[in-house]
Amino acid sequence: MRAIPFALQTTLCLMLGTGSALAETLYYPNQNNVEFTLEVPDDWDQSKEKDDDGILRITVTSDNGAAFQVAKTDITSENDLESFIADTIKGTRDYLKENYKDVKFENPKIVEKDDNAGVATYVGGGKAISKDDGKVYVFESVLVAGKERVIEFWLESAEDDKEGGQRLEDIAKSFKKAAGA
């Protein structure tokens, strides 16, 4: 699992607002009301949908099944953050149980904390066998918690899809916070 190096890079990108460029800019939540951007491959499919709680989730997916999902949730207290993390873990485990077998998943834990910036990065992940195609998939859940919001990243790819895995990391590293956000 590539969790620790990725998490540290993501935290730095979130704090500094820097990243690498790919092909197409994805605006969250949209181009007219930008909170942050990500650079995504222009040959990957994009979808936007609101979940049951009204949270916008943007997903980009390659032809090989590599997927990157991002969402932002506003929080107002430490209790909100704890509830959010518990709900995220439950939702992740439900998703994995429905779509995979032989699941090995570590719940997100704090791997980096910057009290001055008010940012904590939680990382979890693992691997499992897809019920659809029988391939081993690796996945990573990254939660970057600030004082008023949590940005959630989900990265998933077949274990043998090295290019897809690298492109997922490139997407995450391209994160740029919008001015004033």
Description:
The protein has helices spanning 3-16, 78-99, 162-173, and strands spanning 24-30, 33-40, 45-50, 56-61, 67-74, 100-114, 119-130, 136-145, 149-158, 176-177. The protein has 181 residues and is α+β, with helices and mostly antiparallel strands. Strands 3-4-5-9-8-7-6 form a seven-stranded antiparallel β-sheet, with helices on both faces. Strands 1-2-10 form a three-stranded antiparallel β-sheet. The radius of gyration is 15 Å and the shape is globular. The model is unreliable at 1-5 and 15-21 (pLDDT under 50).
How would you summarize this macromolecular structure in one to three sentences?
The chain is of the alpha+beta class. It has helices spanning 3-16, 78-99, 162-173; strands at 24-30, 33-40, 45-50, 56-61, 67-74, 100-114, 119-130, 136-145, 149-158, 176-177.
Question: Helices, strands, pairings?
Answer:
Blueprint: H1 3-16, E1 24-30, E2 33-40, E3 45-50, E4 56-61, E5 67-74, H2 78-99, E6 100-114, E7 119-130, E8 136-145, E9 149-158, H3 162-173, E10 176-177
Distance between the termini: 31 Å
What value does the Rg take, in angstroms?
A: 15 Å
SSE ordering:
HEEEEEHEEEEHE
Structure classification: alpha+beta
- Percentage of residues in helical conformation: 25-40%
Please describe the biggest sheet, giving its number of strands, its sense, and whether it closes into a barrel: 7 strands, antiparallel
